[in-house]
Amino acid sequence: MNFLLLNLKVNPKSDNLVTKKESHKKREIKKERQKKERRAVARLYENGI
C-alpha cells in the first residue's frame, strides 16, 4: 500500500489520474475478494465446518 502512495507523489499530474483510477480498481478487486472470503467462511460455519 505504501508503494501506491509513493507512486502517486512521484508521478507528474497527468499520470496522477490514471494511477488513482488503477488504485481505485485494485481497491474494488480487494473488496470483492474479501466479500467472497466472508461468504466462504459463513458457508463453513453454516455447515458446521
What does the model show?
With 49 residues, the chain is mainly α. The protein is 88% helix and 0% strand. It has one domain (2-46). It has helices at residues 2-10, 13-46. Helix 1 packs antiparallel against helix 2 (13-46). The two termini are 33 Å apart.
Summary keywords:
49 residues, mainly alpha, 88% helix, 0% strand
Tell me the number of structural domains.
1
Question: What structural category do the secondary elements indicate?
Answer: mainly alpha
Roughly how many Å apart are the termini?
Answer: 33 Å
Question: What number is the mean pLDDT?
Answer: 77
Using only C-alpha atoms, the radius of gyration works out to 17 Å
Estimate percent helicity: over 70%
Biggest beta-sheet profile = none
Q: Could you give the count of β-strands?
A: 0
Q: Would you spell out the secondary-structure blueprint of this structure?
A:
Elements: H1 2-10, H2 13-46
